[in-house]
Amino acid sequence: MRLPLSLLLIVPATLAACDAVMRITLWRAGGRRYGRRGAGPPMKLLIVVPARGEGQRLQSTLASATGHDADVLLLLDGDDPGVNAHGARVVVKTPAGPSKAAALAWLAREHRALLEQYEAILILDAGSRLEPDFFEHFSWPDDAAAVQTFLRGSTEGVGAAAAEAERIAQDTEDRGREALGWNVRLRGTGSAFRTKTFLELMPRLDTRIEDLEATLLLTADGGRIRMSEAVVLDEKPEAMTSAASQRARWLLGRYELLVRRAPAFARAIARRPLEGLAFVVEIFGRPLSLMAPLRVAAAVLLIRRNHAVYGGILALTVATDVALHTKASPAAVLRLCGSWLMALLLAPRALVRWMRP
Fold it and tell me: How do beta strands 191-194 and 146-152 pair?
């Protein structure tokens, strides 16, 4: 076998297959009942809505968040004088940019006294909406430094497939992680933190995928992240070009995280070896729309070169992933795959933008 060329295909395919095996493990574990300790929400909650030129998407979010037994803070990343705050308190970060993580870090530094008046902080992105019965189901296990609510989407096209993939990830993988005593994944919107955790964590975030970075840092530090049964409606981009641009940033961000946060990965592995290793292979195993075809190509190559068992194992992991996603619309899945292929084309442009001072 010509190793140099083959390894470029087989090594990442093998890592992706390891991630698939982990997904199967989590799916099986998710059927167990996880013993939660404590079920009450914090007594005083602040909903933070970070936004930067979000327009109408922001209005529906604020309308859903106000009028409940919680205060709302609109965090504008740059001045936006035309926005309707719906009675929420408004703070403005200037100058704007470069990222949501930077805006949240600024809030933690500059408005610490305000945040310390609350027991917990819920982040709600523009375009997301609280379900009307959100607070009836918003629970907080007493061992959790942070919780993640369930996200449900109602968009069409590419957005529908992305929302379905996220639903499957939470209903199978995250429930499995809880059953194993592992941390679930924070997903940006619908994520809530104890105020002390928020103030300590936000100034440390410096990558473009702050949700996964926050998950990693809390895991490395020994903090607990649990699920809350409340639901947030999260609208995904419907247009393929918008979805592709978002996915290009996400794709590059995962490898940025792997490089820039290598010590945190090492600490997570040292603290909880299997959970930490699963976190590492997850970086190489996603997105499935790109990594599943890669595994198929590697399987064909191995079988043609008389490594039928190895190739068969890779092919089997693809089959299990397909089985887990059979409920998604085939047309929507194809559009989602198309957006990921377009994301590969957009990745160099996203990288150039990131490298600008």
Answer: antiparallel
23-27, 57-61, 324-328: the lowest-pLDDT one: 324-328
**What are the CB-based long-range contacts (under 8 Å, 24+) for 35-38?**
36/139, 36/141, 36/226, 37/141, 37/142, 37/143, 38/140, 38/141, 38/142, 38/143
Say whether 231 sits in a helix, a strand or coil.
strand
Residues 6+ apart with CB under 8 A from 355: none
State the sign of the Cα–Cα–Cα–Cα dihedral 59, 63, 65, 66.
positive
Q: What is the pLDDT of residues 65-95, one digit of tens each?
A: 988 889 999 999 988 877 888 889 999 999 9
Q: Rounded CA gap, 312 and 315, in Å?
A: 5
Q: How far apart are CA 21 and CA 32, in angstroms?
A: 18
Which residues lie below 8 Å from residue 46, measured CB to CB, with a gap of 6+? Answer: 70, 71, 72, 73, 115, 117, 118, 120, 121, 122
Collect all residues with Cβ–Cβ distance below 8 Å to 167 and sequence separation of at least 6: 150, 151, 152, 153
Chain position carrying tokens 């970060």: 93
Report yes or no: 66 and 46 within 8 Å, Cβ to Cβ: no
- Give the residues across from 234 on adjacent strands: 128
Does the predicted TM-score (pTM) go above 0.85?
Answer: yes
Give the chain's length. Answer: 357
